[in-house]
Specification:
single chain; five-stranded mixed β-sheet; 431 residues; 10 helices; alpha/beta
Length: 431
Amino acid sequence: MSENKRSGAVVHIDLTPPAGCEMDGYSDRKSPSEGIHDPITGQLLLLEEGDKRIALITMDLIGVELAYSRRVREEVAGVLDTTPEFVLLTCSHTHSGPAGFMSKMLILQREADEGLQEIVCRKLVGAAMEAARNLQPVTLSIGNGTVYGIGTNRNDPKNGPFDPELIVLRMDEKHGEPLAVWMNYGCHPTVLGASNLQISADYPGAARDALRQIYPQTVFMFSNGASGDISTRFNRREQTFREVTRMGRILAGETLKAMQIAVPLSGSGLGGAAEEINLPYKSFPTRTEAEALLAQCEMELESLHKQKAPENELRRLFTTTQGARFQLELLGEFEGKSGQSSLIQALYIGDLGLVGLPGEPFTQIVLDLKGRSEFAWTAVLSYANDEAGYFPDRETYEAGTYESFISPFCDNIAEIVTKRAIHLLERVRHA
Protein backbone atom coordinates (compact mmCIF):
# COMPACT_ATOMS: atom_id res chain seq x y z
CA MET A 1 0.00 0.00 0.00
CA SER A 2 1.37 3.42 -0.84
CA GLU A 3 1.43 5.74 2.14
CA ASN A 4 -0.79 8.39 0.50
CA LYS A 5 -3.77 6.03 0.54
CA ARG A 6 -4.18 6.39 4.32
CA SER A 7 -5.93 9.48 5.65
CA GLY A 8 -6.39 10.65 9.19
CA ALA A 9 -7.57 13.40 11.51
CA VAL A 10 -7.61 14.05 15.23
CA VAL A 11 -9.74 16.32 17.42
CA HIS A 12 -9.10 17.40 21.01
CA ILE A 13 -12.10 18.44 23.10
CA ASP A 14 -12.58 19.93 26.56
CA LEU A 15 -14.82 17.80 28.79
CA THR A 16 -14.18 19.68 32.04
CA PRO A 17 -17.25 19.65 34.32
CA PRO A 18 -18.23 22.60 36.51
CA ALA A 19 -16.72 22.91 39.97
CA GLY A 20 -19.03 21.41 42.56
CA CYS A 21 -19.65 18.20 40.68
CA GLU A 22 -19.25 14.86 42.42
CA MET A 23 -15.91 13.11 41.96
CA ASP A 24 -15.21 9.44 41.35
CA GLY A 25 -12.45 7.08 42.40
CA TYR A 26 -12.46 6.83 46.19
CA SER A 27 -15.25 5.55 48.40
CA ASP A 28 -14.00 7.61 51.35
CA ARG A 29 -14.14 10.91 49.46
CA LYS A 30 -17.29 12.46 50.89
CA SER A 31 -17.26 15.98 49.44
CA PRO A 32 -17.86 17.23 45.90
CA SER A 33 -15.18 18.98 43.89
CA GLU A 34 -14.12 22.43 45.01
CA GLY A 35 -12.37 23.54 41.84
CA ILE A 36 -10.61 22.65 38.61
CA HIS A 37 -6.84 22.10 38.78
CA ASP A 38 -6.38 20.95 35.19
CA PRO A 39 -8.88 20.19 32.42
CA ILE A 40 -10.63 16.91 31.77
CA THR A 41 -10.31 16.24 28.07
CA GLY A 42 -11.21 13.83 25.30
CA GLN A 43 -9.61 13.00 21.97
CA LEU A 44 -10.90 11.33 18.82
CA LEU A 45 -8.51 9.83 16.27
CA LEU A 46 -9.98 8.94 12.89
CA LEU A 47 -8.23 6.82 10.26
CA GLU A 48 -9.47 6.05 6.77
CA GLU A 49 -8.15 3.56 4.25
CA GLY A 50 -10.10 2.61 1.18
CA ASP A 51 -13.75 2.36 2.17
CA LYS A 52 -13.06 1.71 5.87
CA ARG A 53 -12.89 4.10 8.80
CA ILE A 54 -11.94 3.37 12.39
CA ALA A 55 -12.05 5.73 15.36
CA LEU A 56 -10.28 5.62 18.72
CA ILE A 57 -11.73 7.74 21.53
CA THR A 58 -9.79 8.51 24.73
CA MET A 59 -11.21 10.36 27.75
CA ASP A 60 -10.08 11.50 31.20
CA LEU A 61 -12.80 9.60 33.07
CA ILE A 62 -12.63 6.79 35.59
CA GLY A 63 -14.79 4.67 33.29
CA VAL A 64 -18.19 4.42 31.65
CA GLU A 65 -20.95 1.84 31.66
CA LEU A 66 -21.60 -0.36 28.65
CA ALA A 67 -25.00 1.16 27.82
CA TYR A 68 -23.43 4.61 27.59
CA SER A 69 -20.50 3.53 25.43
CA ARG A 70 -22.90 1.73 23.08
CA ARG A 71 -24.82 4.94 22.60
CA VAL A 72 -21.67 6.99 21.99
CA ARG A 73 -20.17 4.45 19.60
CA GLU A 74 -23.41 4.14 17.63
CA GLU A 75 -23.82 7.91 17.26
CA VAL A 76 -20.16 8.46 16.37
CA ALA A 77 -20.30 5.60 13.85
CA GLY A 78 -23.38 7.16 12.32
CA VAL A 79 -21.73 10.50 11.53
CA LEU A 80 -18.55 8.75 10.34
CA ASP A 81 -20.46 6.39 8.02
CA THR A 82 -18.86 3.35 9.66
CA THR A 83 -19.92 0.59 12.06
CA PRO A 84 -19.83 0.71 15.89
CA GLU A 85 -17.45 -2.28 15.78
CA PHE A 86 -14.91 0.14 14.29
CA VAL A 87 -15.26 2.71 17.09
CA LEU A 88 -13.46 1.98 20.37
CA LEU A 89 -13.81 4.12 23.50
CA THR A 90 -11.34 4.05 26.40
CA CYS A 91 -10.96 5.93 29.68
CA SER A 92 -7.77 6.82 31.54
CA HIS A 93 -9.25 5.86 34.95
CA THR A 94 -8.22 9.05 36.71
CA HIS A 95 -9.38 9.00 40.34
CA SER A 96 -9.78 12.79 40.35
CA GLY A 97 -12.34 13.14 37.59
CA PRO A 98 -16.11 13.68 37.61
CA ALA A 99 -18.60 11.05 38.73
CA GLY A 100 -21.80 10.27 36.90
CA PHE A 101 -20.82 7.66 34.31
CA MET A 102 -20.87 4.50 36.47
CA SER A 103 -23.99 4.35 38.60
CA LYS A 104 -23.78 0.56 39.01
CA MET A 105 -20.42 0.47 40.81
CA LEU A 106 -21.70 -0.32 44.29
CA ILE A 107 -18.56 0.52 46.22
CA LEU A 108 -18.33 4.03 44.79
CA GLN A 109 -22.09 4.56 45.18
CA ARG A 110 -22.50 7.43 42.73
CA GLU A 111 -25.62 8.34 40.80
CA ALA A 112 -25.77 8.73 37.04
CA ASP A 113 -25.33 12.33 35.89
CA GLU A 114 -27.51 12.30 32.79
CA GLY A 115 -26.82 15.94 32.02
CA LEU A 116 -23.05 15.46 31.99
CA GLN A 117 -23.42 12.26 29.99
CA GLU A 118 -25.45 14.10 27.36
CA ILE A 119 -22.91 16.92 27.07
CA VAL A 120 -19.99 14.52 26.67
CA CYS A 121 -21.83 12.44 24.07
CA ARG A 122 -22.73 15.51 22.02
CA LYS A 123 -19.13 16.77 22.18
CA LEU A 124 -17.78 13.43 20.99
CA VAL A 125 -20.24 13.32 18.11
CA GLY A 126 -19.24 16.86 17.22
CA ALA A 127 -15.58 15.83 17.32
CA ALA A 128 -16.36 12.99 14.90
CA MET A 129 -18.02 15.44 12.50
CA GLU A 130 -15.01 17.75 12.67
CA ALA A 131 -12.57 14.87 12.12
CA ALA A 132 -14.48 13.67 9.06
CA ARG A 133 -14.30 17.17 7.54
CA ASN A 134 -10.55 17.44 8.11
CA LEU A 135 -9.20 14.13 6.83
CA GLN A 136 -5.81 14.50 5.15
CA PRO A 137 -3.03 12.18 3.93
CA VAL A 138 -1.05 10.81 6.88
CA THR A 139 1.74 8.41 7.65
CA LEU A 140 1.89 6.24 10.74
CA SER A 141 4.92 5.16 12.73
CA ILE A 142 5.23 3.12 15.89
CA GLY A 143 7.74 2.94 18.70
CA ASN A 144 8.05 1.71 22.22
CA GLY A 145 10.02 2.19 25.40
CA THR A 146 10.06 1.21 29.05
CA VAL A 147 8.66 3.36 31.85
CA TYR A 148 10.14 3.03 35.32
CA GLY A 149 9.38 5.24 38.28
CA ILE A 150 5.60 5.52 37.93
CA GLY A 151 3.91 2.14 38.43
CA THR A 152 4.78 -1.07 40.23
CA ASN A 153 2.76 -4.07 41.36
CA ARG A 154 0.75 -2.69 44.23
CA ASN A 155 0.52 -5.98 46.10
CA ASP A 156 4.15 -7.04 45.69
CA PRO A 157 6.34 -4.15 44.48
CA LYS A 158 9.56 -6.17 44.58
CA ASN A 159 8.56 -9.46 42.96
CA GLY A 160 5.06 -8.95 41.55
CA PRO A 161 4.62 -8.81 37.76
CA PHE A 162 4.19 -5.54 35.92
CA ASP A 163 4.43 -4.42 32.31
CA PRO A 164 6.69 -1.36 31.90
CA GLU A 165 6.20 -1.19 28.12
CA LEU A 166 5.05 2.06 26.58
CA ILE A 167 3.68 1.79 23.03
CA VAL A 168 3.49 4.98 20.99
CA LEU A 169 1.61 5.42 17.71
CA ARG A 170 2.56 8.58 15.82
CA MET A 171 0.45 10.09 13.03
CA ASP A 172 2.26 12.64 10.83
CA GLU A 173 0.95 15.01 8.18
CA LYS A 174 2.52 15.14 4.73
CA HIS A 175 5.45 17.33 5.83
CA GLY A 176 6.39 14.98 8.66
CA GLU A 177 5.02 16.99 11.57
CA PRO A 178 3.09 14.97 14.18
CA LEU A 179 -0.66 15.55 14.18
CA ALA A 180 -1.36 13.01 16.91
CA VAL A 181 0.57 10.76 19.28
CA TRP A 182 -1.18 7.96 21.15
CA MET A 183 0.36 6.50 24.31
CA ASN A 184 -0.44 3.09 25.81
CA TYR A 185 0.95 2.40 29.30
CA GLY A 186 -0.55 0.57 32.26
CA CYS A 187 -0.86 2.11 35.73
CA HIS A 188 -3.64 3.47 37.92
CA PRO A 189 -3.72 7.31 37.78
CA THR A 190 -3.75 7.58 41.58
CA VAL A 191 -0.99 10.01 42.42
CA LEU A 192 -3.71 12.12 44.05
CA GLY A 193 -5.66 10.65 46.95
CA ALA A 194 -9.13 10.90 48.41
CA SER A 195 -8.35 14.19 50.14
CA ASN A 196 -7.94 15.93 46.80
CA LEU A 197 -11.07 17.86 45.82
CA GLN A 198 -9.69 19.45 42.66
CA ILE A 199 -10.67 18.00 39.28
CA SER A 200 -7.57 16.59 37.56
CA ALA A 201 -6.49 14.16 34.86
CA ASP A 202 -3.63 13.06 37.17
CA TYR A 203 -0.29 12.00 35.65
CA PRO A 204 -1.59 11.27 32.07
CA GLY A 205 -2.79 14.87 31.84
CA ALA A 206 0.53 16.15 33.18
CA ALA A 207 2.36 14.05 30.56
CA ARG A 208 0.29 15.60 27.78
CA ASP A 209 0.95 19.08 29.15
CA ALA A 210 4.70 18.46 29.20
CA LEU A 211 4.71 17.11 25.65
CA ARG A 212 2.71 20.05 24.32
CA GLN A 213 5.47 22.36 25.51
CA ILE A 214 7.60 20.77 22.78
CA TYR A 215 4.89 19.97 20.22
CA PRO A 216 2.18 22.63 20.78
CA GLN A 217 0.23 21.67 17.64
CA THR A 218 0.10 17.94 18.39
CA VAL A 219 -2.82 16.15 20.05
CA PHE A 220 -1.59 13.66 22.65
CA MET A 221 -3.79 10.73 23.66
CA PHE A 222 -3.51 8.21 26.51
CA SER A 223 -4.99 4.73 26.96
CA ASN A 224 -4.32 2.63 30.04
CA GLY A 225 -2.91 -0.89 29.79
CA ALA A 226 -2.09 -3.47 32.48
CA SER A 227 -3.59 -1.44 35.30
CA GLY A 228 -5.54 -3.80 37.58
CA ASP A 229 -2.64 -4.61 39.89
CA ILE A 230 -0.42 -1.64 39.06
CA SER A 231 -0.44 1.74 40.79
CA THR A 232 1.76 4.64 41.82
CA ARG A 233 1.57 3.54 45.46
CA PHE A 234 5.22 2.67 46.01
CA ASN A 235 6.82 5.17 43.64
CA ARG A 236 5.00 8.38 44.47
CA ARG A 237 6.80 10.56 46.98
CA GLU A 238 3.73 12.48 48.04
CA GLN A 239 0.13 12.89 46.93
CA THR A 240 0.38 16.41 45.57
CA PHE A 241 0.07 18.18 42.24
CA ARG A 242 3.82 18.68 42.29
CA GLU A 243 4.15 14.90 42.28
CA VAL A 244 1.57 14.62 39.49
CA THR A 245 3.81 16.89 37.41
CA ARG A 246 6.94 14.90 38.23
CA MET A 247 5.39 11.57 37.25
CA GLY A 248 3.81 13.11 34.17
CA ARG A 249 7.24 14.23 33.05
CA ILE A 250 8.59 10.69 33.45
CA LEU A 251 5.94 9.41 31.03
CA ALA A 252 6.45 12.39 28.73
CA GLY A 253 10.19 11.80 28.59
CA GLU A 254 9.84 8.19 27.50
CA THR A 255 7.13 9.16 25.02
CA LEU A 256 9.39 11.80 23.52
CA LYS A 257 12.13 9.21 23.04
CA ALA A 258 9.72 6.68 21.51
CA MET A 259 8.48 9.33 19.08
CA GLN A 260 12.00 9.90 17.79
CA ILE A 261 12.85 6.22 17.29
CA ALA A 262 9.46 5.24 15.88
CA VAL A 263 9.56 3.28 12.63
CA PRO A 264 6.97 3.23 9.83
CA LEU A 265 4.05 1.00 10.73
CA SER A 266 4.10 -1.93 8.33
CA GLY A 267 1.11 -3.68 6.88
CA SER A 268 -2.05 -2.30 5.38
CA GLY A 269 -5.73 -2.35 6.10
CA LEU A 270 -8.07 -1.20 8.85
CA GLY A 271 -10.80 -3.10 10.62
CA GLY A 272 -12.27 -4.33 13.83
CA ALA A 273 -14.72 -6.59 15.58
CA ALA A 274 -16.58 -6.69 18.87
CA GLU A 275 -18.11 -9.59 20.76
CA GLU A 276 -20.22 -9.92 23.86
CA ILE A 277 -18.55 -11.79 26.69
CA ASN A 278 -20.11 -13.39 29.74
CA LEU A 279 -18.18 -12.67 32.93
CA PRO A 280 -19.07 -15.41 35.47
CA TYR A 281 -19.39 -14.52 39.15
CA LYS A 282 -17.56 -16.33 41.91
CA SER A 283 -19.10 -18.20 44.82
CA PHE A 284 -19.16 -15.66 47.61
CA PRO A 285 -18.52 -16.68 51.24
CA THR A 286 -21.36 -16.77 53.71
CA ARG A 287 -21.91 -13.65 55.76
CA THR A 288 -20.46 -15.41 58.81
CA GLU A 289 -17.32 -16.34 56.87
CA ALA A 290 -16.96 -12.84 55.46
CA GLU A 291 -17.35 -11.28 58.91
CA ALA A 292 -14.73 -13.64 60.33
CA LEU A 293 -12.31 -12.76 57.54
CA LEU A 294 -12.78 -9.05 58.16
CA ALA A 295 -12.21 -9.49 61.89
CA GLN A 296 -8.99 -11.40 61.22
CA CYS A 297 -7.71 -8.71 58.86
CA GLU A 298 -8.51 -5.97 61.35
CA MET A 299 -6.70 -7.85 64.12
CA GLU A 300 -3.61 -8.36 61.95
CA LEU A 301 -3.61 -4.71 60.90
CA GLU A 302 -3.79 -3.57 64.51
CA SER A 303 -0.89 -5.88 65.35
CA LEU A 304 1.24 -4.42 62.56
CA HIS A 305 0.52 -0.90 63.81
CA LYS A 306 1.68 -1.85 67.29
CA GLN A 307 4.84 -3.38 65.85
CA LYS A 308 5.46 -0.17 63.85
CA ALA A 309 5.79 -2.26 60.71
CA PRO A 310 7.14 -0.71 57.48
CA GLU A 311 4.75 1.54 55.61
CA ASN A 312 4.49 -0.76 52.59
CA GLU A 313 3.38 -3.69 54.77
CA LEU A 314 0.83 -1.51 56.54
CA ARG A 315 -0.48 -0.22 53.25
CA ARG A 316 -0.95 -3.68 51.76
CA LEU A 317 -2.82 -4.99 54.79
CA PHE A 318 -4.87 -1.80 55.05
CA THR A 319 -6.15 -2.22 51.49
CA THR A 320 -6.76 -5.94 52.08
CA THR A 321 -8.82 -5.06 55.15
CA GLN A 322 -10.69 -2.49 53.09
CA GLY A 323 -11.40 -5.16 50.48
CA ALA A 324 -12.70 -7.57 53.11
CA ARG A 325 -15.02 -4.84 54.38
CA PHE A 326 -16.30 -4.08 50.87
CA GLN A 327 -16.87 -7.79 50.26
CA LEU A 328 -19.47 -7.76 53.03
CA GLU A 329 -21.31 -5.00 51.17
CA LEU A 330 -21.31 -7.02 47.96
CA LEU A 331 -22.82 -10.21 49.35
CA GLY A 332 -26.45 -9.26 48.97
CA GLU A 333 -26.06 -7.69 45.55
CA PHE A 334 -24.58 -10.75 43.85
CA GLU A 335 -26.47 -13.46 45.70
CA GLY A 336 -28.25 -15.76 43.24
CA LYS A 337 -26.64 -14.17 40.17
CA SER A 338 -24.38 -16.12 37.82
CA GLY A 339 -22.58 -13.39 35.90
CA GLN A 340 -22.84 -10.30 33.75
CA SER A 341 -22.53 -9.48 30.09
CA SER A 342 -19.95 -7.08 28.73
CA LEU A 343 -18.01 -6.43 25.52
CA ILE A 344 -14.52 -7.03 24.18
CA GLN A 345 -13.31 -5.32 21.04
CA ALA A 346 -10.35 -5.43 18.69
CA LEU A 347 -9.14 -3.02 16.04
CA TYR A 348 -6.25 -3.39 13.65
CA ILE A 349 -4.18 -0.78 11.86
CA GLY A 350 -1.82 -2.62 9.55
CA ASP A 351 0.45 -4.71 11.78
CA LEU A 352 -0.81 -3.11 15.00
CA GLY A 353 -3.52 -4.94 16.91
CA LEU A 354 -5.52 -3.14 19.60
CA VAL A 355 -7.63 -5.17 22.02
CA GLY A 356 -10.04 -3.37 24.33
CA LEU A 357 -10.98 -5.04 27.62
CA PRO A 358 -13.99 -3.90 29.65
CA GLY A 359 -12.39 -3.55 33.04
CA GLU A 360 -9.13 -3.69 34.92
CA PRO A 361 -6.90 -6.48 33.58
CA PHE A 362 -4.07 -7.73 35.75
CA THR A 363 -0.57 -7.72 34.34
CA GLN A 364 -0.47 -11.41 33.47
CA ILE A 365 -3.45 -11.04 31.12
CA VAL A 366 -1.70 -8.28 29.20
CA LEU A 367 1.63 -10.11 29.04
CA ASP A 368 -0.12 -13.26 27.80
CA LEU A 369 -2.00 -11.35 25.11
CA LYS A 370 1.13 -9.61 23.87
CA GLY A 371 3.04 -12.87 23.86
CA ARG A 372 0.39 -14.89 22.03
CA SER A 373 -0.81 -12.30 19.52
CA GLU A 374 0.02 -12.81 15.83
CA PHE A 375 0.36 -9.06 15.26
CA ALA A 376 3.82 -7.53 15.04
CA TRP A 377 2.64 -5.00 17.62
CA THR A 378 -0.12 -5.54 20.18
CA ALA A 379 -1.53 -3.04 22.65
CA VAL A 380 -4.08 -3.86 25.35
CA LEU A 381 -6.50 -1.08 26.28
CA SER A 382 -8.21 -1.31 29.64
CA TYR A 383 -11.44 0.49 30.67
CA ALA A 384 -12.59 -0.01 27.08
CA ASN A 385 -16.33 0.55 26.48
CA ASP A 386 -17.23 -0.64 30.00
CA GLU A 387 -15.86 -0.62 33.55
CA ALA A 388 -16.76 -4.11 34.73
CA GLY A 389 -14.23 -4.21 37.58
CA TYR A 390 -11.07 -6.12 38.41
CA PHE A 391 -9.90 -9.18 36.46
CA PRO A 392 -7.44 -10.75 38.93
CA ASP A 393 -5.27 -13.75 38.12
CA ARG A 394 -5.39 -17.01 40.10
CA GLU A 395 -2.36 -16.10 42.21
CA THR A 396 -4.12 -12.97 43.41
CA TYR A 397 -7.20 -14.93 44.46
CA GLU A 398 -5.00 -17.36 46.36
CA ALA A 399 -3.18 -14.49 48.09
CA GLY A 400 -6.43 -12.85 49.20
CA THR A 401 -5.87 -9.21 48.22
CA TYR A 402 -8.10 -6.15 48.07
CA GLU A 403 -8.81 -6.75 44.39
CA SER A 404 -9.73 -10.40 44.85
CA PHE A 405 -12.19 -9.54 47.60
CA ILE A 406 -14.05 -6.80 45.72
CA SER A 407 -13.99 -8.47 42.31
CA PRO A 408 -17.26 -10.36 41.81
CA PHE A 409 -15.73 -12.65 39.19
CA CYS A 410 -14.67 -16.29 39.35
CA ASP A 411 -11.05 -17.21 40.06
CA ASN A 412 -10.39 -18.20 36.42
CA ILE A 413 -11.65 -14.88 35.01
CA ALA A 414 -8.16 -14.08 33.71
CA GLU A 415 -8.12 -17.24 31.61
CA ILE A 416 -11.63 -16.56 30.29
CA VAL A 417 -10.84 -12.99 29.26
CA THR A 418 -7.47 -13.93 27.74
CA LYS A 419 -8.92 -16.77 25.67
CA ARG A 420 -11.70 -14.63 24.24
CA ALA A 421 -9.35 -11.72 23.52
CA ILE A 422 -6.90 -13.97 21.66
CA HIS A 423 -9.79 -15.38 19.62
CA LEU A 424 -10.90 -11.87 18.71
CA LEU A 425 -7.40 -10.77 17.73
CA GLU A 426 -7.09 -13.85 15.50
CA ARG A 427 -10.48 -13.09 13.97
CA VAL A 428 -9.51 -9.55 12.91
CA ARG A 429 -6.01 -10.65 11.90
CA HIS A 430 -7.38 -13.12 9.38
CA ALA A 431 -10.46 -11.16 8.29
